[in-house]
Write a structure and sequence with these properties.
Strand order of the largest sheet: 1-2
Protein name: tRNA-uridine aminocarboxypropyltransferase
Pfam families: DTW (PF03942)
Number of helices: 3
EC number: 2.5.1.25
Structural class: alpha+beta
Largest sheet: 2 strands, parallel
GO molecular function: tRNA-uridine aminocarboxypropyltransferase activity
Distance between the termini: 56 Å
Shape: extended
Radius of gyration: 18 Å
Helix content: 10-25%
Keywords: S-adenosyl-L-methionine, Transferase, tRNA processing
């Protein structure tokens, strides 16, 4: 299995860390890829697939570190998934750049119908 977008975000977060990430369940021995307990590791059962659409995951700073992160599973199954760290006050430059690329649209390229209203009616 290759590194997915969420695992890349996790590696970047670990590199910036000043102390270990110690959340509930931190004493459980976990698979370092799927973060499930070693006895329940799903890595050998995950089969990548193709989809007509792509996922763009926006994750808060510590979200890639959490074992309950389902975005990791999405990124494992759909390799074209992209993930960005999200901060309302400091958005990722990569995220901002991705919005200007042709062919990318938050709604699949469909525009909502427009209605012309006069006199507020």
């Amino acid at each position: 299995m290759t590194e997915n977008a969420v695992l890349q975000l996790r590696a970047e977060r670990i590199a910036r860390a000043t102390r270990p990430f110690l959340a509930r369940g931190n004493r459980v021995r976990r698979c370092q890829r799927c973060l499930l307990p070693e006895k329940l590791c799903l890595c050998s059962t995950i089969t990548p697939a193709q989809a007509k659409s792509r996922f763009c995951l926006l994750m808060f700073d510590t979200e890639p570190m959490k074992p309950s992160n389902t975005g990791r599973l999405i990124a494992d199954i759909l390799p074209d998934t992209v993930a960005f760290q999200w901060s309302r006050t400091e958005p990722s430059l990569d995220l901002l750049d991705s919005g200007t690329k042709p062919g990318l649209s938050a709604n699949g390229g469909l525009s909502p119908p427009r209605m012309l209203m006069s006199n507020g009616k």
